[in-house]
Specification:
The complex is a heterodimer of chains A (179) and B (784). With 179 residues, chain A is an alpha+beta fold. Chain A has four helices and six strands; from the N terminus they run αβααββββαβ. In chain A, strand 3 and strand 4 form a beta hairpin. Among the domains of chain B are: 262 residues, Orthogonal Bundle (Penicillin binding protein transpeptidase fold), CATH 1.10.3810; 113 residues, no CATH class. The chains are: A alpha+beta (179), B alpha+beta (784).
């Protein structure tokens, strides 16, 4: 009986010591500087290297989308005439430079299809419906429209009639014509 | 009458004289043909107001005249003009002072009120004068003819000296005279004609040259302006002031001739100096915000449509903007070198109205080195841990609570069948069983990923969308488990908006950076209606549970030791974020009436050095909050003009608080070190754990309690359950027994001692007493 009690208190002591050790261990471990860096991501968003110019893009809209100064875009891409960029042009967004100063071989050019979080259109469907941020009005644009690329696409239609049937109104440079 | 003196080649001159002669003859013929409608004579239209002038010009020229659109801050301070096409403000006839009308008529067309569109007398005189002097001294164009030219002829046609053009002009002038009153014609003319220096119309001219409104013009100034339309470039008052003054003298003489001035008045006027006060464009103090507003306007009204003279009233408050900018700049200056960051962005949102009080897109718009023109509040960036509250919001919406238990133990997930993803905490350690409160407050990665795995990615995407995150629009299968730790980009504006929704008891209000738009005629074309467009995004309870965790300074102590910039003088809820490779640092936090988001980093995505959100973005967030609280005069923008801000957060009705056993991360023992109160819906899930829910019993507070209050369940899947069991065994040397049927009756608890119940948390506040300030004691539960 007594030995059993001793054994138990021995166990208790060990448990106590273990707990203490655990505590000390923890205090020394919680480094205050490093807090909440997100864990390595399994599907990281690729660093953009190239941007493929879409119809209606201007250097300004591209610089806004990719977060690179317009001057830098002009310099890096050695654009002689920055007013002329063609849809399909490939713009270098960032250059990786090794310590020796040599540029790294560029990985497979990664086009940034939708920087603003838009949805890729189904094949051949280019009528883009969106809601105006001002008042939520349902509008649709076509690729030739000036604001086509900067919109956050919401709904894609293959024909204008479908967009109209869904209650969307055609956007025009002088404002939508409300029927 | 044209009064341009310049020599002309004799052949050209002769051609012109011939043209004028033909005009004279044809004009006489034409003047007989269209009879004036009798109706117009018997019932003359009243002098047109601004709206009527716009209507007339639009119907005649086929397009609405462009006007300067102005953007104001919330207190009516002008932020910027949109005047790329030129400046113009259309005014009604009665708003034009008589002196302007007199000076214009005397200069351009003395018999304007008498003639029928063509002043033959003037033409004859012009012809005679021109023949005499062998140069063109004057042309005989009336105001009506000039208006016809502006309205109907294309710019290239306008300056063409041909008989056809002249004939067309005469015909059109007579058309105008037939159908419109003299007041209408004069009002259209004074609003359309160009005065130089991008000023179209008399109101814009008064503004551009004298920085005055029309009614403030003096006679001398009116005389100067009236002389400009003939040759705005030649008489440009800024470039050739002496020519402009000479021209003004001529106008004064013409006014005297026309009988509008006596000779003594004219002399007095000539002696009077004219002072130019060029219009100062408002210094653009919120360039990113103005561009953002411009974008929204273009999106709705089109690239041409924005030039319609809108008065755009926005939610921005320049005082908040200046304050945020100053604090952000100071922090970059102070700590930028140490952590290697060069830029910061701040956005302040008012949750109830959806208004943006400040938008600092970069610390210097004009600094090319940091790509200052890029608005870092609207560019999508990885949010890091700052996204975790969204995941927890989705969980709380689906029955989880801050007291729910999650096991922070090594785990891996197999991605696309091959690669393994093993989430790790920043400390590299695993902390065993945890309540969600501790997991979120200390920003642990493993529990966040496990939680996401448990509730599913679609659930989180749905909740995020409801809260205000619009950036995640890809198909659901494009998103992986790194969603829980901020692997997917979100603009700071949207992230802060989502926090604002949580701050507003889960009620989503669309962003309303624009509060009201009036068109050129003063009619309201848009008004923000936050109350009518709000919707409950997540339940008030879920919002409260999140808020209570994010404002729980005790719970986050392990990771955020004192002193921490996250601790503020008033109760706030806050979350930080740091992304992979030290690229972005965030701190987003809120009170019930204010949400502030801060980003720190490098625009070109260059990594910082050992920079974590709490020490880089945190101080900016802290200082912005404190600076706002310190200045009572700012409270009106938050909806509390009386100078008393509410404290804490509203506890939703139909809830109960129940004490549950709590422990620090990694320090679980079956004997509870303390009890804390958690909030539960009044209808509690009280079902007892069954034999299948294997786990450990914990001491409970008062019955009835939800099972998680007194029962520590093992994870459901066998692999994790085995790991959990091992973890417990290793630490407690089999001292703990599995108890499948925990006894919840108060005196039959599995453990001996009832632990001390902690006093209520800081954030607990009685409902509907938002305005009563609650006195709170700082508590010291963790032996600090």
């Amino acid at each position: 009986m007594k030995s059993a009690f001793r054994f138990l208190s021995f166990l208790c002591a060990i448990w106590f010591l273990a707990a203490c050790a655990n505590n000390i261990f923890q205090i020394t471990q919680s480094a205050p500087g490093e807090i909440d860096q997100a864990a390595s991501t399994p599907t990281p968003t690729p660093t953009p290297y190239y941007y493929i110019v879409k119809p209606g893009d201007t250097l300004w809209t591209i610089s806004q989308k990719v977060g690179v100064d317009i001057e830098v875009l002009i310099q890096v891409n050695e654009l002689s005439n920055p007013d002329v960029i063609q849809p399909g042009d490939r713009l270098l967004i960032s250059k990786k430079v090794t310590i020796s100063g040599k540029p790294l071989p560029t990985p497979t050019p990664t086009p940034i299809p939708c920087m603003q979080g838009c949805i890729q259109p189904p094949e051949g469907c280019v009528v883009k419906g969106f809601r105006a941020r001002l008042d939520g009005m349902k509008l649709y644009v076509l690729p030739e429209d000036a604001i086509y690329p900067v919109q956050r696409g919401e709904t894609w239609f293959c024909r204008e009639e479908d967009a109209i049937a869904a209650g969307f109104v055609r956007w025009t440079p002088s404002g939508p014509k409300i029927p | 009458m044209m009064d341009i003196r310049f020599s002309l080649h004799p052949t050209l001159l002769r051609a012109f004289q011939r043209a004028l002669a033909i005009v004279l003859v044809l004009g006489l013929l034409l003047s007989i043909s269209p009879p004036r409608p009798t109706q117009a004579e018997s019932d003359p239209a009243p002098p047109p107001d601004a709206a009527r002038v716009i209507e007339l010009i639009t119907s005649l020229s086929g397009e609405e005249p462009f006007q300067t659109t102005r953007i104001y801050d919330r207190r009516g301070i002008l932020l910027a003009d949109i005047d790329d096409r030129g400046r113009r403000t259309i005014v009604g006839y009665n708003e034009i002072p008589d002196i302007v009308i007199q000076a214009t008529i005397a200069t351009e067309d003395r018999r304007f009120f008498q003639h029928q569109g063509i002043d033959y007398l003037a033409i004859v005189r012009a012809l005679w004068q021109n023949t005499q002097s062998e140069t063109i001294v004057s042309g005989g164009s009336t105001i009506t003819q000039q208006l016809a030219r502006i309205l109907f002829l294309s710019p290239s046609e306008r300056y063409e000296q041909s008989i056809q053009r002249k004939l067309k002009e005469v015909e059109l002038a007579q058309f105008l005279e037939t159908y419109y009153t003299k007041e209408e014609i004069l009002a259209m003319y004074l609003n359309m004609v160009y005065y130089g220096n991008q000023a179209y119309g008399i109101a814009a001219a008064a503004e551009v040259y004298f920085n005055k409104s029309l009614s403030e013009l003096t006679l001398a100034e009116a005389a100067l302006l009236a002389g400009l339309p003939q040759a705005p470039a030649m008489y440009d008052p800024f470039r050739y002031p002496e020519r402009a003054l000479e021209r003004q003298r001529t106008v004064i003489s013409l006014m005297q001739e026309a009988g509008f001035l006596t000779s003594s008045e004219a002399d007095a006027l000539r002696a009077q100096p004219v002072l130019f006060h060029p219009y100062q464009r408002p210094r653009n103090r919120a360039p990113h915000f103005v561009n953002y507003i411009r974008d929204i306007l273009i999106e709705r009204f089109g690239t041409e449509g924005i030039h319609r003279g809108y008065q755009v009233h926005t939610s921005l408050d320049l005082r908040y903007q200046a304050l945020a900018e100053r604090i952000a700049r100071a922090q970059v200056k102070r700590k930028g070198k140490k952590y290697r960051f060069s830029n910061a962005a701040v956005v302040i949102i008012q949750p109830q109205s959806g208004g943006i009080l400040a938008m600092v897109g970069s610390i210097d718009f004009n600094d090319k080195k940091i790509a200052g023109q890029v608005n870092m509040t609207t560019v999508p960036r990885q949010p890091g841990s700052a996204i975790k509250p969204i995941v927890y919001a989705a969980a709380f919406e689906r029955g989880w609570s801050p007291a729910s238990i999650i096991w922070d133990l090594p785990v891996y997930y197999t991605l696309d069948g091959r690669r393994r993803y093993a989430p790790r905490n920043i400390t590299g350690r695993f902390y065993g069983p945890l309540r969600l409160r501790m997991a979120l407050a200390n920003s642990l990665n493993v529990p966040a990923v496990k939680l996401l795995q448990a509730i599913g990615i679609p659930a989180v995407l749905e909740t995020a969308e409801k809260l205000g995150i619009k950036a995640w629009r890809q198909p659901q299968d494009q998103y992986g488990l790194s969603l829980a730790v901020g692997g997917y980009e979100v603009p700071l504006l949207e992230l802060t908006h989502a926090f604002a929704t949580i701050a507003n008891q889960g009620v989503y209000t669309p962003l309303y950076p624009i509060t009201e738009i009036r068109d050129g005629a003063g009619r309201v074309v848009f008004q923000a209606k936050p109350r009518e467009t709000q919707r409950q995004a997540i339940s008030p309870l879920a919002a409260y549970q999140l808020t209570s965790i994010l404002s729980d300074a005790r719970a986050r102590r392990m990771m955020f030791p004192r002193p921490s910039p996250l601790d503020t003088s008033q109760i706030t809820a806050v979350k930080t974020g740091t992304t992979d490779g030290w690229r972005d640092n965030l701190t987003v936090g809120f009170t019930s009436y204010l949400a502030v988001g801060v980003w720190i980093g490098n625009t070109n995505n260059k990594p910082m050095r050992n920079a974590v959100g709490v020490y880089t973005a945190g101080p900016i967030w802290h200082d912005v909050m404190e600076a706002i609280w310190a200045d009572e005069s700012l409270y009106d923008a938050l909806g509390y003009a009386d100078g008393v801000l509410p404290q804490g957060f509203i506890l939703p009705p139909d809830t109960v608080t129940i004490p549950v056993c709590d422990w620090l991360p990694g320090k679980f023992t079956p004997r509870c070190p303390r009890m804390v109160e958690e909030v539960y819906p009044a209808s509690l899930p009280t079902s007892l754990p069954t034999g299948r829910d294997r786990g450990y019993c914990l001491p409970a507070g008062a019955a009835p309690s939800p099972p998680e209050a007194y029962f520590l369940p093992l994870p459901k899947d066998t692999r994790s359950a085995a790991a959990a069991r091992n973890w417990v065994r290793k630490r407690f040397l089999r001292a703990v027994q599995h108890l499948n049927d925990c006894d919840t009756t108060p005196n039959k608890r599995p453990l001996v001692k009832q632990p001390k119940l902690l006093p209520p948390r800081q954030w607990v506040l009685s409902a509907e007493k938002m305005k009563t300030s609650v006195h709170l004691q700082a508590s010291n539960q963790y032996g600090e």
